[in-house]
Queue: 2 jobs
Job 1
Amino acid sequence: MFVQFTTWDIVRNLLEAGRWTLALSLLAFMLGGAVGLLVLFLRISHNRVAQAFTKGYIEIFQGTPLLMQLFIVFFGLPLLGIDVSPWLAAALGLTLFTSAYLAEIWRGCVEAVPRGQWEASASLALSFPQQMRHVVLPQALRVAIAPTVGFSVQVVKGTAVTSIIGFAELTKTGSMLANATFQPFLVFGLVAAGYFALCYPLSLYAKRLERRFHVAR
Amino acid sequence: MSLVNIAGLHKHFGTNHVLKGIDLAVEEGDVIALIGRSGSGKSTLLRTINGLESIDKGELVVDGTAVHDGKGDLRALRQKVGMVFQQFNLFPHLTAGQNVMLAPTVVKKTAKREAEDIAKEVLLKVGLSDKFDSYPDQLSGGQQQRVAIARALAMRPKVLLCDEITSALDPELVNEVLAVVQQLAAEGMTLIMVTHEMRFARDVGNKLIFIHHGRIHESGDPKTILTNPETPELANFTRAVM
Ligand SMILES: Nc1ncnc2c1ncn2[C@@H]1O[C@H](COP(=O)(O)OP(=O)(O)O)[C@@H](O)[C@H]1O
Ligand SMILES: [Mg+2]
């Protein structure tokens, strides 16, 4: 069977695959954010075991390539008798990756809150969760917004790696189309343009936020 | 029983033995000035009284709430002890009114309406009733420090700790803060303050404590011991600062 691809066919297929890239990015970012918040709380808690565990967690994910993390999820879980589809492996791997980075970014923001704020709220008899909720997180949040949006660009680009375990997102679909059409330059040019269209507005937005919170109180 | 009772209090930072057996009784209505050279342990002593620093050895009792050898209910202690810091430490994301209302609503679960009344009352007391909706960065240093005092008062503390609360202020703003403290003293508030304002310590305090190398080296009536210090160390100190 031989199929003739028009340029519009290529674009249409890439747009469809782009939706998976977008969906995976959103999912990884939201779930990663939720898990990251949990990791952050354990990381800065007064519990030694929780501190050590989350410190190790963050270091493992920051110290190994995302590709290896995906391989371990995709090939490792089946060894334990758990079957994972490429979609599940991609979502799980990226979520863990994102959670570790966000927890570390946010920890920096929490530590940027001056010690005097902790001391003042402690001497008013606030408990640790009350200090976090009413004093520390509201201030850390201001600082966190710009780097968090900035990191979302890394998540979008990170989804490309999931093509290697066979998840048919933008990059994977691009390779298949390049093989079928013998027009790799056109296809990957379009793929790159797709990533750019997703990432550029995010970086621009992150830069604007950074400037805004730099001058704000 | 005194309002604050400290007995045999020791505190180390690593190998640095900072407080070497402090015994101190504070009665209701006392206005105590802590003086001494930088690094002598004044702030550390003050901070143990509301549990910001742990105690290695000894006993601390404030109005019946006790800390023995570092163990005790710190949050119960802190509800009885207010603290004002050199650097104000107002919450920058909250207005003056919200700064004052936070602890009553969150810690004591006071209803919002009632907390607002308390906030208005204490802001009026420090002369800032018109600044309820101002953010800290819209206030002068002196005004910020007065809000910090109001914030502590809103918890109705039994004793108020002040750690060099005028040291970070421009000279022309010092008096407005001291006036508030003086008024509190006159109303019978129990105060323990670390201060370099010797004249204020003498005129407003009823007891002066000279800390030297982590010990109470000399203490007594401010006018008496400042005029006739018994130890050469206090004599040297007063000569240097007055
Ligand atoms: N958090 C801390 N960690 C280690 N050492 C400290 C700490 N706080 C104070 N110290 C040390 O304790 C001693 C007393 O300090 P401090 O109570 O602040 O003195 P003062 O208030 O009289 O100037 C100093 O030697 C100081 O370096
Ligand atoms: Mg000090």
Job 2
Amino acid sequence: MIRFSEVSKFYGALPALRGVSGEVGAGEVTVVCGPSGSGKSTLIRTVNRLEPINSGQILIGGRDIHERGWSVNALRSGVGFVFQSFGLFQHLNALDNVTLALRHVRGLPRKEAEALGLAQLERLGLAERARQMPSALSGGQQQRVAIARALVMKPAVLLLDEPTSALDPEMVGEVLRAIEALAADGLTMMCVTHEMGFAQRVADRIWFMERGELKADATTEQFFKGEAGARAREFLKQI
Amino acid sequence: MIEIIQKYWLLLLIGQYPHGPLGGLAMTLIIALTVLVISMPLAIAIALARTSGIAWLGRPLALLVSLVRGLPFLMFVFWVYFGVPALFGISLGGTTTMIVALTIYEAAYISEIVRAGIEAIPKGQIEAAHALGVRYGVRTLRIVLPQALFNMLPSLITQFASIVKETSIGYIISAQELTFAATQANNLEITKPAAVFGVLAAGYYILCGGIAGIAKMLERRILQQRQRAAAAEFVPLAAAVRT
Ligand SMILES: Nc1ncnc2c1ncn2[C@@H]1O[C@H](COP(=O)(O)OP(=O)(O)OP(=O)(O)O)[C@@H](O)[C@H]1O
Ligand SMILES: [Mg+2]
């Protein structure tokens, strides 16, 4: 579903990604882990062109993300992205957050968009919160609204960058359970996370990154058995 | 002072209207509102251009804004008053000159307020909009400007008070406004400048103080709204305890 071929990316002279190659299969969940600064965020941000790459190629469903005739906004509207810090529009209530792109990117009429938005919020257990402003929601609820906002676009893939790192510990569970349910539904996901328990339950594959390199690409079973190489074993021990 | 008010209140309120041109407080407000209405869109356009990241658009405007802000307002009055007839061979008259000069001046100042409001919007929201594939126009109209202008409302209202005060400069080019009306009253009285200009000062103070008061109140409201919103985070917890 997503194929990286020799993807490299520099911030000035600093290499953030060095020749990353790998494939995320359709319906698979790939957890990306690794030490701070290893390029995990950069990697998933290249997929919807939030970060431009310097060389290599990224394909989604067989199509090059830089293909002519595939505008960056069209690409992005078909790829869900969930940020660590939610990024909810503070002046819009939960439902308006969820329907904004349906209405103004997809061009759906308000009624239709709201029906879809409400259904999506309901699936994430937020039906009663639809008319509340983000600032009136808990962190866990805000992140679930952000997930609903991404999902309502029916993305081919969902990318999550440390979706629970900004949450109070008691709210981590509700968000992880929501993501777990999506995995069960067969959504293709790439998730950067330090929640290794979650990774073990939900991931099909684990990618271990270090200094911009994809050091290990293993099945979840292999990875947790310590069969993904010495560096990955060391990393696993530290967590 | 009471006597002055009793005698000249109509002159101070509407000038010589209907026997002469409209003036006084009414014209002061008309000038100030006209300036606000014209300079607001200009200011928004300048602020958007400067935050667009397009250098050839932003740089010259930044220079222009700093130039306007670095010169005394009176310069602009003179330039428009003497420059426009010299360049275009038309005379604008006092009131129009004031409106044009003030609009240039205020567009620069207000653009800085709007720019601050735009830059204060959390980057995460802009990035989220990018990630949803929301194009520039929608992002600007639906996400950036509503929040920037709302948060800057108190500053914008305060700026309106300063526009009102600046209209008094119009006196020197005979724009019919409040200060001009007061000097007419003063010329009729001759011996009571303290009372006349006391009334004038009180008039400006009540008007501008009132506007500033509204700005303060709004600022408190906006702050309260945020605090209430923050406090509401505990509601779900309380609900959880009940069930
Ligand atoms: N905008 C940027 N400009 C310059 N350097 C950057 C930028 N963003 C990231 N970097 C650098 O690129 C490298 C990879 O960063 P990245 O954010 O992808 O790491 P990460 O694995 O997500 O780390 P973390 O676990 O801390 O989120 C780091 O060395 C970082 O300092
Ligand atoms: Mg990161």
